[in-house]
Amino acid sequence: MFVSDSILLQRDKFLILMNFEHEIAWENDQVYEEVYRKSIEFPNEFWMQYAQDITWKRVPTLAYDKKKNEWLSDGISNVCYNCVDRHAIETPRKPAIIWHGDEYGERREISYAELQQMVLQIAAILKNRGIKKNDVIGIYMPMIPEALASMLACSRIGAIHLVVFAGFSQEALKYRLTTSNARALLTVTSFRRGGKEISLAKNIPSDLDVDIINLDNVSFPKNAKAEIEWQNSDDDLFILYTSGSSGKPKGVLHSALPYMLYVTATFKVIFGIKSDDVYFCTSDIGWITGHSYTTYAPLFHGLTTVIFSGSPTYPQADRYWEIIEKERVSIFYTAPTAIRSLQMFNKKFVKKYDLSSLRVLGSVGEPINKSAWKWYFENIGNKRCPIMDTWWQTETGGIILAPLRNLNQKPGIAGKPFFGVETDIINGELVIKNKFPGLYKAIIPEFKKADNVLYKTGDEAVYEDSDIKIKGRMDDVINISGHRLGTAEFECAINKVDEVKESAVVAIPDELKGQTAFAYVVLTRPLEKNDCADIVKKIVNSTRNNIGSIAKPDYIAFVPDLPKTRSGKIVRKLLRDIANGNENSADLNSVINSEIIEILKASVKSPIFCPDMCKLK
Ligand code: PRX
């Protein structure tokens, strides 16, 4: 619509250089190598080709301006316009969102025209409440169409959304809203999951200077109007909090237009999308996957995105397969932890359904183990569908590594860097050496800008032939069921219990969750036989209240002391090795209380299993 001649010229030059179509670029080694080499050599032409999928109010003349360190500097557009309005004009009746609820048959279908109305109404409410460009708006909602529409409504008026996962506690919600200076919070009273009513209203802090907008009891304005706020490359789309090494989660800020370019290009190429694809990503909008690949990328490309607010095992362990059959899903993207949990159930739950509509499968969030990969490949994909094991992070906005989309994949190997992204492994750590449009802009609340030189991912990786295999985090981050949680966050919560003097949390492997939290706890007084269950419950409750129900330690070892250096630093490496039964790799000379080591080794042999202990009175 607004495409200028200059971009067409650039595109022609690029096509002559590259000579590829997005459907085949990620299928075969030779084509991949060729396109990759050229994308690094001609980054401007490469990104400008994908910038053409965006409808611009003003077309950018350059993809990356080195001098200004800016992407799409002179371009003007709007994310909501690209995800909703242009499709509401071209394909108004096509389903944009299909929602499935907690019970069989609970279903809503929202066309692009209806989604536009929903977005306009929410945007108009925000406008009426005085929300302006760059205001931060919290979203605390289950996976319903209104939640996606709320994100899009913010983007429409240039507000910055801050989604807080509905499973996070009041404390976690409050921390995120205050540190990001949120002006308003969009929410609903409650929702049903796994057959239970879950209240969100009880978690809304009453002592905050935030305008609470409950979408289940507002009256929507008729013929709502909310003008599009056209944005340039400096404008932002969202903040999403995630865990790092410190005790407090960090807010990752993403800009609007460069993020949109990266997420939509990776989606198009890596999944090899077709216009009639029905796409089902199981990630909640509380996580980055729910932003990039449940909401923005599929809607941008005008596909139908299927969302599900129930539990995969309620009423039975067949909900994903039932939805795939019913909606004729062609691309299914989920997490290894979900696959492992469904793998445990009888195959009859899968065999009942016709899954022949599937073309491509995806996996994200943690390394996928061989057995889960094989089960997914054989039983869900019927040995016909490649599994896109995509590695990326909240900070990278979109997919960085994925295997080629063919049937020669090696289980558990994420594979190749996306075009235009230069990865390397330095001292065992995966790093990104060049600029790419998906990288976050700044970290909230300090507004610390992304480093200009090298992006260190914090993940350990190795080469296997020419492919990259991810081994896991190198820092103090635990990945529990694909949920990223900092050990320091656990410790802060555990240390709030009166009887606790100090604690150290480390990750240990878990068959179902990938990893789980193991806590060494030092008490202020000797543990008495009768109060063990009480203290364990207090510890578990404190993590639940301060973080959320996903963040419970599974194992606790009560110990008399923790190994420390002369300066009082806890020697975590040693604690990790002991809990995992590994050969010690820490420098023991630095431990001043080395007599504690044997006691620790003995105590980890029979730790307390919290779920059992919490069942006791
Ligand atoms: O350790 C990696 C793991 O998840 C971390 C990022 O977590 P988060 O920011 O919450 O984003 C998750 C969804 C993109 C990474 O540092 N991770 C993610 N995907 C994979 C993975 N580990 C191995 N293989 C993957 N495919």
Task: Give a verbal description of the structure.
It is a single chain. The chain is globular, with a radius of gyration of 24 Å. An eight-stranded mixed beta sheet has the order 10-7-5-6-11-12-22-23, sandwiched between helices. The chain has three domains: about 55 residues; about 400 residues, Rossmann fold (3-Layer(aba) Sandwich); about 140 residues, GMP Synthetase, Chain A, domain 3, CATH 3.30.300. The longest helix is centred in the first third of the chain and has 17 residues. It has about 625 residues and is of the alpha/beta class. Helix content is about 30%, strand content about 25%. Adenosine-5'-monophosphate-propyl ester binds next to α10, β17, β24 and β25.
Question: What does the secondary structure layout of this molecule look like, with pairings?
Answer:
Blueprint: H1 5-18, H2 22-25, H3 29-41, H4 43-51, E1 64-65, E2 70-71, H5 79-90, E3 95-100, E4 107-111, H6 112-128, E5 136-140, H7 145-156, E6 160-163, H8 170-179, E7 184-187, E8 190-193, E9 196-199, E10 211-214, E11 236-242, E12 250-255, H9 257-270, E13 278-281, H10 288-300, E14 304-308, H11 319-327, E15 331-334, H12 336-343, H13 348-351, E16 360-364, H14 370-380, E17 387-390, E18 401-402, E19 416-417, E20 423-426, E21 429-432, E22 442-444, E23 448-449, E24 455-464, E25 467-473, E26 477-480, E27 483-486, H15 487-495, E28 500-510, E29 514-523, H16 532-546, E30 555-558, H17 572-579, H18 596-603, E31 608-609, H19 610-615
Parallel strand pairs: 3-14, 5-6, 5-7, 6-11, 7-10, 13-14, 13-15, 15-16, 16-17, 29-30
Antiparallel strand pairs: 1-2, 3-4, 8-9, 11-12, 12-22, 18-19, 20-21, 21-24, 22-23, 24-25, 26-27, 28-29, 30-31
Helix pairs in contact: 1-4, 3-4, 5-6, 5-7, 5-10, 6-7, 9-10, 12-14, 15-16
The protein binds adenosine-5'-monophosphate-propyl ester (PRX).
Adenosine-5'-monophosphate-propyl ester binds next to helix 10, strand 17, strand 24 and strand 25.
